[in-house]
Amino acid sequence: MSLRIVVCIKQVPDPEAHSSGFIINEDALCVEANDIASILNPFDENALDIALKVKDQYQEEVTITVLTLGHNISISLMQKALAPGADELIIIDDELFAFGRADSYVTAYSLAAAMRKIENYDLIVLGRQSADLNAGQTAVGLAHALNLPAITMVSSIEVKKESIIAERSLLSRRVKIECPMPVVVMADSNIGMVRYPTLSQILASKKKPVTIWRANDLEIDIHYTQRRLVLRKLYKPEQLNRDCIFIGGATVEEAAGSLVERLRNDHIL
Amino acid sequence: MAGVCDATNGAGRSNAPTLGWDSSADCWSVTNICSPSTALSSISLASESPYGNAFETRSSSILVFFEHNHDGDIYPVSLESLSIARVIADQLNGHLYAVIIGKDLRAACEELHHYRIDKIFAADNPACSENQPESIATVLTQITEDVQPRLVVMGDTLLSQDIAPRVAFTLNASLATACSNIYVDSHSIAPQQLVFTKPIYSGNVVAEFTSVSNIALATLRSKAFMPAKRMASANGDLITVDVNIKPKQFLTKIREVVDDKEDNNLDQAEVVISGGRGVGNAEGFSLLNDLAAVLGGVVGSSRPPVDYGWMPPSSLIGQSGNTIAPKLYIAVGISGAIQHLMGMVSSRIIVAINKSQDADIFDVAHYGIIGDYAQIVPVLIERIKKLKQSKGLL
After folding, report:
1. DSSP string computed for A198-223
2. Contact B158/A153 with Cβ under 8 angstroms?
3. Do residues B233 and B115 touch, judged by C-beta distance below 8 A?
4. Which residue ranges in chain A fall short of pLDDT 50?
5. Domains assigned to chain B
6. Which of A104, A201, B142, B199 could form an S-S bond across to A137 if both were Cys, CB 3.0 to 4.6 Å?
7. Which of B44, B43, B83, B90 has its CA nearest to residue B64?
8. Contacts of B297 (CB under 8 A, 6+ apart)
9. How confident is the model at residue B121 (pLDDT cuts 50, 70, 90)?
10. Which of B289, B74, B41, B288 has its CA nearest to residue B168?
11. Do A134 and B200 touch (CB under 8 A)?
């Protein structure tokens, strides 16, 4: 058996950075991350983890390709995705994919064009959503564009000869789905962060093959290059000024008593 | 090695078109192109439609997709979606239609008659169980195609995160997910333009989008609106939709369904006690359970306890988990990352207990206690017990 898994990973500004770092440029209608580190989209780390677990089981028979699409992509950042066990990196870097220019259609159909160029693949794994635009449509959209089945909210997969059995994690139940390959899988967001690479893996990741494509290198279906959803305005959320009432007291008993009293007056207790 | 299916329509692909951004037209322009395909998916004619007069107002009608539990109870987020859909339908002077798809829908349909809905489209079929999102998406696509609404609204749920993109991509329609608001902009150049508001960058920025497709889809964040009001009297026509799904239509096959624990009912709870990294370990949550028990509440958590395995993923409150708005929310050892705040900020009263005075959670809390929860919570439990005893409740 030889199996090629493509994991789609997006570069995003660290979503846990302080709010003041997300600066709105109203003229360019974009968000400029000021002094915020770029990171691998945390949701996509779950996708990489699913792929690495398949590789744990089948070792050399599995090739993992990391595919990313965006603008001003940092190769050294993306190599972090290679270190724990992926084999090669394909970067699609183009101004056309800068913030606010690509909606889920443009992204999905551009990734589909990249997949056609990659040609041989069995399994495509994506995260549930990106930590920047949080649209959560790319996995299903990519499957649609490639006319492949899509399975969402997947927490683990088991690879059979020509099919996979994917476990979907839903609120109060788990559903096992069997599906022939090729198939697109959207990872659930509760799988956990990707494993730490060893020092030798980090060093080795710098030598793994990197391919860079521009939009022109892809045969993107023009019908799908017009956005369906158009960004028209960006603003900062209203600041909540709740003026928190700090409840103190000489003792813990006093503080607890005072809180209970207040909640009673608010008709909460 | 498996082959690649080619599902695209082929337009413009043979000669590798050269792409460039055309800012005036707000799209990519192409300098070497065969013929851009323009047709959206075919639209069935009104005379062929089983939905009668739905087409008279198709440009301003709105569809709301409803989800329900096994007892036929409609999901709160569906009723919240109905609320916003009703406002928009009234502004557009259009009809409002409900869509419900699943199996054993009788109780849910009866319930829907008690809301201000013009028509209820019900597809009641065992092939459309909650575990078969492809079937549900296929039926919803068909109904949407036939009705040609201006807007399709549904709650942002695990099911809609699966089916909404399927429907949107099949119909070439726009989809705005996890919206905090949808409104009609009567001042825009395009008359009565729909605007979709949603938090991006984990809530650090708010974005407004407009749709350029004939049909727009949107999913709505939980607790963004009050649920629609139930009426005592029943109204609305029920239209049965025939489901024509062949068992082998989809490549995916259900092999096993394992029911986990009962739903924790976080969404419905009036009191939620939530713990974060500051709780320290899984054992710490037993103290939170005791507090929840005396208040008749449910225990939730922020992201770290789920990542550390102290709490199950279903207990997660925040951007990628539950969005809740209980009467009382007590945040214990939660620093207040913005992703967490997004899931609980609408709670009526928020109490934060944290060691650090600088914790961001105090920015949204109504009451704060600075200190060690392990000392505070047991005393708090005793005080609440005393109060309840004095009221004869314990």
Report:
1. PHHHHHHHTTS-EEEE-GGGS---GG
2. yes
3. no
4. none
5. 3-49 (no CATH), 56-249 (3.40.50.620), 266-390 (3.40.50.1220)
6. A104
7. B83
8. B269, B270, B271, B272, B273, B291, B326, B328
9. very high
10. B41
11. yes
pLDDT tens per residue across span B246-300:
867 899 999 999 987 666 788 889 999 999 999 999 999 999 999 999 999 999 9
pLDDT band at B186 (very low <50, low <70, confident <90, very high): confident
Which positions ≥6 away from B46 have C-beta within 8 Å?
A: B55
What average pLDDT does the segment B32-41 reach?
A: 29
pLDDT at residue B32 tops 90 = no
Q: Name chain B contacts of A153, Cβ cutoff 8 Å.
A: 158, 161-162
The percent of residues in chain B predicted with pLDDT above 90, rounded, is 70
Give the DSSP per-residue string, B225-273: SPPPPP-SS---EEEE------TTSSS-EEEEEEE-SPP--TTT-SEEE
Chains A, B: CB contacts within 8 A come to 316
Output the pLDDT for position B53.
Answer: 39
Hey, which residues 9-68 in chain B have their CB within 8 Å of chain A?
Answer: 9-13, 16-19, 21, 26-28, 30, 33, 36-38
Residues in CB range of A161: below 8 A, 6 or more apart = A1
Residues 6+ apart with CB under 8 A from B76: B222, B227, B267, B268
Beta-strand pair B96-102/A123-126: unpaired
A182 cis-preceded (ω within 30 degrees of 0): yes
Q: What confidence tier does B128 reach under pLDDT thresholds 50, 70, 90?
A: very high
